[in-house]
Automatic annotation (TrEMBL), chain B:
The keyword Oxidoreductase does not apply. GO terms for biological process: protein retention in ER lumen; protein transport; vesicle-mediated transport. Coiled coil: none annotated. This is ER lumen protein-retaining receptor. InterPro entries: ER_ret_rcpt.
Length: 10, 211
């Protein structure tokens, strides 16, 4: 899932 | 994880700790905008609804700390040390920040789902959440040194994230335009303050705006 990958920052 | 992001996160954490300690030690939230702190609590709540999507122990821990600290700060300002809250100077109309951020999140997002729109809203909201605090400083014309340190640490965090995004773009080809544009807006809002901080506070003077 690219969105989960996208939000790997705080 | 790269050095810019790590130092950025630590700066963010430091800001939150400075603020909590300042309020706790002085038993006062004078000079602090409760409205900005409510906005930050909204920011962390709407962004970290993705807590079940495990990224790393580091991320999970930081998210929990940010959420807990933001609610603790709001509690100290509006409940425990309510008598010291300077509401007469905290008059920024937050609906002018919340509503446009929300509408923009509905219009410009990566994916039209509840979680994703709320994440996007939190990014837009965060970029302007400090405005009530900056407005309060400009209204009273001054800020305590400790409040200045808090603002400097909080502003530096997003500036360091911009370096992190440049680094990630060049090394991983990873980029998120929504976060980048909002992060730049957020950092630009602090520029005026950064200038005053470097030219005054670091030289031992109080942050005082020209009358």
């Amino acid at each position: 899932n690219f969105l989960i990958d996208l939000h790997d920052e705080l | 994880m790269n050095i810019f992001r790590l130092v950025g996160d630590l700066s963010h954490l430091l800001a939150i700790i400075i603020l909590l300690l300042k309020i706790w030690k002085t038993r006062s939230c004078a000079g602090i905008s409760g409205k900005s702190q409510i906005l930050f609590a909204i920011v962390y709540t709407s962004r970290y609804l993705d807590l079940p999507n495990f990224v790393s122990m580091y991320n999970t821990l930081m998210k929990i700390v940010f959420i807990a600290a933001s609610y603790a700060t709001v509690y100290l300002i509006y409940m425990k040390f309510k008598a010291t809250y300077d509401h007469n100077h905290d008059t920024f109309r937050v609906e002018f920040l919340v509503l446009p951020s929300f509408v923009l999140a509905l219009l410009i997002n990566h994916d039209f789902t509840v979680l994703e729109v709320l994440w996007t809203f939190s990014i837009y909201m965060e970029s302007v959440a400090i405005l009530p605090q900056l407005f309060m400083v400009s209204k009273t014309g001054e800020a305590e040194s400790i409040t200045s340190h808090y603002l400097f640490a909080l502003g530096s965090y997003r500036a360091l994230y911009i370096l992190n995004w440049i680094y990630r773009y060049t090394t991983e080809d990873h980029y998120d335009l929504i976060a980048i544009v909002a992060g730049i807006v957020q950092t630009v809002l602090y520029c005026d303050f950064f200038y005053l901080y470097i030219t005054k506070v670091l030289k031992g003077k109080k942050l005082q705006l020209p009358a």
